[in-house]
C-alpha cells in the first residue's frame, strides 16, 4: 500500500467532512434529517458496497475460511480494546463513574461508516469484503458485550438478537450464500450495486461534518467539552494508537498475509463508532461524552491512520 494513495484517500475524506461542515449551514439538522442520513448510509450505501465487493471477488473455500477468520479476530480485537479501556479507566480515573462507557469508546470503532469505504478505495473489492466482515464482528460485539455492559439489568434474549439483524449483516449473509452456490444476480442488479456503493463514503463523511457542527453550535458545547477533557485522552489513545499496534501484533503472530494485516490495522485504527451516542442514549448512559469522543477521535484519526500505516510498512519491510 503506497503512502501516496493513503494520504490521497485521507485528504478526500477530510474534504468530504469539510463539505458536510458547509452543508450544515444550509438546513436544520434535526432528528428527521439525522435518521435520513443514517438510513441511506446503513440501508443503501453500505449493503451495496458489501454486495458489490462479494460479486467482484471469486469466492472459494479458502476465501470463506479467511472471512470467518476475520470475523473472529475482529471480535477478539474489539474485546481487547474494551478490556484495555476499562483497565485504564479504573487505573487513571477512579473518581469518574464512566468506566463502562470509556471501555466501549476505547474498543469499538467506526468500521462501517469510514472503514469499509476506505478499505474499498485502498485495497479493492477483496479488501472491502474483509472490512465488511470485520465490521460484522464489531456489530456483534456492540449488541452483545456492549449492550450487556451498559444495561442496568442484565438481560439476554431475542431482543438483542433482533438488534443484530441489520441490513448490512443481512447483505453479508445473502451475498455469501449466493456466492457459495455460484449464483450471481443479473447484470442490472450488479450494476445498481456498483453505482449505489459509491454514495456510502460521501454520505458518511457529510454526516460526520454536519454532526460535528451541530454539536459544536449548541450553547452548552464548550462546557460539556471541558467536562470530558480530563477523560478524553483515554479512549482516543487506546482506540487510535494502542489497539492498531495490538492488531498488527496479532496479525504478525498469526502469520496472516499482507492484505489481511492491512485490513486488521486499518479497521482497528478507526475512530470511535459514530453510533456510540445512540447506544449510550438507549441505555441511559453518558450520550454527550460519546458524541464528543467521536468528534475528537475522528479529527485525530485523519492524522493517526496514515501514521499507523506508515509505521506498519516500515515494520513489515524491516522484518
TrEMBL record:
Which cellular compartments is it found in? Answer: Cell membrane
Chief localisation class? membrane
Q: Does the keyword Isomerase apply?
A: no
A GO biological process this protein is involved in? Answer: transmembrane transport
Q: What InterPro entries has UniProt attached to this entry?
A: Mem_transp_PIN-like (IPR004776), Na+/solute_symporter_sf (IPR038770)
Top-level taxon: Bacteria
Listed transmembrane segments = 6-24, 36-55, 67-90, 102-123, 129-151, 163-183, 195-216, 236-254, 260-280, 292-316
Annotated membrane topology is: Multi-pass membrane protein
UniProt keyword terms in alphabetical order: Cell membrane, Membrane, Transmembrane, Transmembrane helix, Transport
Instruction: Quote the cellular component terms of the Gene Ontology held in the record.
Output: plasma membrane
Q: Which family does it belong to?
A: Belongs to the auxin efflux carrier (TC 2.A.69) family.
Q: What is this protein called?
A: Permease
Q: Which organism is it from?
A: Edaphobacillus lindanitolerans
